[in-house]
Amino acid sequence: MSTETNTKSEQPSTAAEGQPQLISAKTLAYIHQLLKERPLFFFFENDIESRFYAKRAEEYRRLLSVGKLLFFVLYGIIAAIAMLAFPNVITADDLFILKFVLIPIGALLILVLLVAEKPFFRTNYQWLSTPVSTLILFCIMMASVSTIDSDFAQHAAYDVIIIVTIISFGLRVLFPVCVLIICLAGILTILTTISLNWKIDWFKFSHYYGLGSFITLMIVGLIERQERFAFLQEIIVAHQTVELDRLNKALDRISREDPLTGLANRRAFDETLQKEWERAKRDQQSIALLYMDVDFFKLYNDTYGHNIGDVCLRRVGQTIKQALRRPADLAARYGGEEFVVLLPNTNVEGAIDVAQRIIKHIDALALPHSRSKAAPHVTLSIGVTHNIPRASSTLTEFLAKADAALYKAKEHGRHQYQFDS
């Protein structure tokens, strides 16, 4: 029974969750077309639009998370100025401003901050923020038109401008949603004013709210347009990064892989051997090496031709690899018809067990070899060595022992393994 032991932990996945992925050629062409045409106002196709929406949602979440205290401070300043500078207005009409403006806005702000981290709010924040933002804006505008005190009305008008600016630039809602909020709040204010028979200065109202909101919306629309183009550039850069990473990995794999057999090549084997040798020396663990050669392969090539010889080497190499049972074990083509198997943290019995298993698998492969002097099919001779490296031990000595063991196997008739410690 094999006594091999695993020493390597499971390798991490190469594609980490949440990292950028390659995009389709169709999507890439669509992005390049938008960047070339640069339309004034536009929306993305569904997949890109949802990603842009998610990006804005995350920006809003971060802004709200960082600015919680700032929102309350700003609201507190506005409310304090209103109560200190205009106490008569605040207490007029049975505390109308306090009941229907200041308290509702404070309650709405608290509600937003309480649910801001909830998944449903983060997923649908634009549409959930629409009624809240509309009501806050409506309350402020009611304060600006509900009193004949010109000083207070002017103060409230400035507050309206502040709120419009915060909604337009701070909430990170998409442009159509921003337009919807401002239009709904304006319509609701006008309808309420008319129904209550309040006198309103339409010129001032259209100036500070209508003109101010229009200019703000135009700026927001242009900013969003630039953000959309920047987002497309980000997608292209991410795509190119992933593509470059994929190509680099492919090139690295090609540089470390034998093209004929698909096994590790000499370079990859030498690097891994050096690393495992140092590990074994540092941790005082056993390390084993199998050095093998296809018996009478020159005669095989002379008989069946080099193309069939290549097929033989490919099948032998894959058979050797399939005989291994641990991810840490490395099978490599050492050169020509020579193969090696590196067995980290493996004792003598485990190494011999692997050698026996490889011979058994090659025999089961049963590739005909009419001119072999060892068997009627393709066979292997295997040299086995094992060591627990000391400070004075060298890789050269380790490899020489494996080579000596292989030579011994050939001297004893081939189609077998021999051990040299």
Helix proportion: 55-70%
Strand percentage:
5-15%
In round numbers, the mean pLDDT is 85
- Please describe the biggest sheet, giving its number of strands, its sense, and whether it closes into a barrel: 5 strands, mixed
Instruction: Please state the CA-atom Rg, rounded to the nearest Å.
Output: 38 Å
Summing up helix and strand content along with how strands pair, one would put the structural category as: alpha+beta
Q: In whole angstroms, how far apart are the ends?
A: 20 Å
- The count of helical stretches stands at 13
Strand/helix succession: HHHHHHHHHEHHEEHEHE
- In the predicted model, the low-confidence regions spanning at least 5 consecutive residues are 1-18
Question: How many β-strand stretches?
Answer: 5
Outline: elongated
Strand order in the sheet with the most strands: 2-3-1-4-5
